């Protein structure tokens, strides 16, 4: 049995090497190619908010200060019961650019559906080129629109990076940022090799025609989540997608500050993955299962001291290519303070993901 386990361990090692070096390496070791021609077509920035009055006060000025020749902001009030609408109206009154407000009334058929609210906002947008973010996000530079829009020159979908604000001496903050980094490595890499599978709504762009060509969110409107990843999973192809990860193109938001809230958020995100295309589910499942099995098999073999020298050597090699892949990616995405403890963050995250997987099997997440 140990011989078979050892052979399986070597196979798992090879799978992990394939993912981290040639696969993720398409992003990790790639160079950012500057876009020579600036895009200058009118842009609509779409921000959906539900009870986000204070976040709008803080973050909306960063959107208004964008250095782009022609853009509007579409603010969607998604049935808020705080002062969100009043704050939107005040910004519209004082703003130097055009702000449209879409006030979504309660609808029994689409109760609490962000997708319904987003659909109304997209319909209200004046322009075909759309860039999406959230009320709890802000662009990290005044060139955010320009950097994202430049990719519209030859593509209709653009994946950006939504970072989280760094909180000093917070272990949870580092785990959340590490998970966000690893997710970004995956969706950028998948897009680069021609099998895009998701994007994040904190920093995402596509054309209005792309949205309406597939009747928007109609195929998954019944699901509470998925306005970003499920939509991209449905419409993105190797021919219509581009990636944007220049440092000035990021958005930044404040991460959850309690493990309970973060786990609830991750349970919701993981639940949408069951609706991905089969090829994506297989590739993602193989990566996560190989992570878990690598350590389970390694610990078992070491506990019996079976070929322990080879096992230790393969663990060391794996840590080296893990550092290479994560390290180069972290530098690209301004997450360099996560590099040193990468193996520890990875092991902790594997444990959390296993817990979430089991939890979701027992009961579906109902809190949105």
UniProtKB/TrEMBL annotation:
<dbReference type="InterPro" id="IPR029044">
    <property type="entry name" value="Nucleotide-diphossugar_trans"/>
</dbReference>
<keyword id="KW-0812">Transmembrane</keyword>
<keyword id="KW-1133">Transmembrane helix</keyword>
<feature type="transmembrane region" description="Helical">
    <location>
        <begin position="6"/>
        <end position="29"/>
    </location>
</feature>
<keyword id="KW-0808">Transferase</keyword>
<dbReference type="InterPro" id="IPR001173">
    <property type="entry name" value="Glyco_trans_2-like"/>
</dbReference>
<comment type="similarity">
    <text>Belongs to the glycosyltransferase 2 family.</text>
</comment>
<feature type="transmembrane region" description="Helical">
    <location>
        <begin position="282"/>
        <end position="302"/>
    </location>
</feature>
<feature type="domain" description="Glycosyltransferase 2-like">
    <location>
        <begin position="44"/>
        <end position="172"/>
    </location>
</feature>
<keyword id="KW-0328">Glycosyltransferase</keyword>
<protein>
    <submittedName>
        <fullName>Glycosyltransferase, catalytic subunit of cellulose synthase and poly-beta-1,6-N-acetylglucosamine synthase</fullName>
    </submittedName>
</protein>
<feature type="transmembrane region" description="Helical">
    <location>
        <begin position="338"/>
        <end position="358"/>
    </location>
</feature>
<keyword id="KW-0472">Membrane</keyword>
<dbReference type="Pfam" id="PF00535">
    <property type="entry name" value="Glycos_transf_2"/>
</dbReference>
<dbReference type="GO" id="GO:0016757">
    <property type="term" value="F:glycosyltransferase activity"/>
</dbReference>
<feature type="transmembrane region" description="Helical">
    <location>
        <begin position="308"/>
        <end position="326"/>
    </location>
</feature>
């Amino acid at each position: 049995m140990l011989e078979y386990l050892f052979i399986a361990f070597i196979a798992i090692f090879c799978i992990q090497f394939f993912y981290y070096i040639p696969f993720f390496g398409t992003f990790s070791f790639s160079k950012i190619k500057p876009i020579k021609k600036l895009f200058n077509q009118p842009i609509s920035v779409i921000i959906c908010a539900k009870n986000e009055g204070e976040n709008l006060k803080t973050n909306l000025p960063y959107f208004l200060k964008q250095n782009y020749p022609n853009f509007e902001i579409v603010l969607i009030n998604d049935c808020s019961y705080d002062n969100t609408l009043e704050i939107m109206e005040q910004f519209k009154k004082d703003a130097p650019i055009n702000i449209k407000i879409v006030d979504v009334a309660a609808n029994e058929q689409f109760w609490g559906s962000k997708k319904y609210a987003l659909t109304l906002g997209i319909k209200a947008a004046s322009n075909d080129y759309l860039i999406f973010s959230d009320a709890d996000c802000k662009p990290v530079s005044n060139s955010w629109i320009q950097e994202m829009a430049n990719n519209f020159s030859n593509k209709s979908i653009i994946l950006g990076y939504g970072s989280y604000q760094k909180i000093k001496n917070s272990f949870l903050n580092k785990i959340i940022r590490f998970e966000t980094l690893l997710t970004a490595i995956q969706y950028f890499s998948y897009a680069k090799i021609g099998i895009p599978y998701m994007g994040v709504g904190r920093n995402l762009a596509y054309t209005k025609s792309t949205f309406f060509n597939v009747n928007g969110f109609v195929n998954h409107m019944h699901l509470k989540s998925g306005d970003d990843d499920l939509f991209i999973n449905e419409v993105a192809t190797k021919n219509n997608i581009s990636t944007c990860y220049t440092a000035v193109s990021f958005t930044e938001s404040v991460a959850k500050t309690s493990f309970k809230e973060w786990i609830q958020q991750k349970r919701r995100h993981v639940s949408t993955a069951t609706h991905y295309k089969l090829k994506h589910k297989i590739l993602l499942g193989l990566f996560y299962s190989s992570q878990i099995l690598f350590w389970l098999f390694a610990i078992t073999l070491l506990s019996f001291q079976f070929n322990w020298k080879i096992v230790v050597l393969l663990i060391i090699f794996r840590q080296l290519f893990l550092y290479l892949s994560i390290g180069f990616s972290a530098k690209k995405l301004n997450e360099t303070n996560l590099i040193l403890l990468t193996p520890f963050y990875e092991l902790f995250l594997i444990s959390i993901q296993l817990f979430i997987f089991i939890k979701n099997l027992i009961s579906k997440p109902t809190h949105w």
